[in-house]
Amino acid sequence: MTDPQSAAAPSAAAASAAARAARHLAQVEESTRHLLHTVAELGPGAVAEPSALPGWTRGHVLAHLARNADSLVNLLDGARTGTDIPQYPSEEARDLGIEEGAPRPADVQLADLSATDGHFTAAAARLPADAWAAEVRHRHGYRFPAYEIPWRRLMEVEYHHVDLDAGYTPAHWPAEFAAAEFRRLAGKLSGADLPAVELFADDTAERAVIGTGTPALTVEGPVRALLAWLSGRADGDGLRRTPDTALPTLPPLG
Fold first, then answer.
1. Which of 23, 67, 71, 122 has the most CB atoms at less than 10 Å from its CB?
2. Rounded to whole angstroms, how far apart are CA atoms 60 and 99?
3. How far is CA 219 from CA 51, 70, 81, 105, 200, in A?
4. Alpha-carbon distance 35 to 32, whole Å?
């Protein structure tokens, strides 16, 4: 006879997905706390100043972060209900939300970020364990499992915190985030159309090869510095190169 409680229990795969999501949600909470602290310290005119992203002010970055949280709530709700809820109504709506939100003063930006983070956290808490294995649709059309949503939010918070150019740098990235993103971005650039480069993270002993062919160049440095270069947040000048030649231009990661 089947135990009703056992029958209702999530599968091992679903339980693993839920545990992974829970761990990454805790990281999102910590990273968001640091982000909100940075925003709270911004002066009255700081949001109108340029960010590290070409053509965007700090206000653009903050509005994007808030609207991204809203978009991920849509995906979480879709996973919970089994419906295909678009991440954004349209690309035009996404861009408009950023442009309209960018000029707001710092206190309004902070309140929006705090509120949307609360909505994201609440939406995640509503998911039953088996829903974390459901597939959702990215705004570019491809599908991915819902348990990746927390890490995607973590990427947005950590990368764009640096992009604010308000004192938070790649050196502040959490160690697990930096190591995981180093592996992810190096994997994306494996086989890319550029001369092969061997990367060595001297603080984690991790190696990776990007590009095609046999590496003729080795680039070494801390994993955070390597990730800053791979992600376009630094030019890589502080990395050690053997031989001492110029770094290749990396293709857009998309």
1. 71
2. 7
3. 28, 39, 47, 42, 6
4. 5
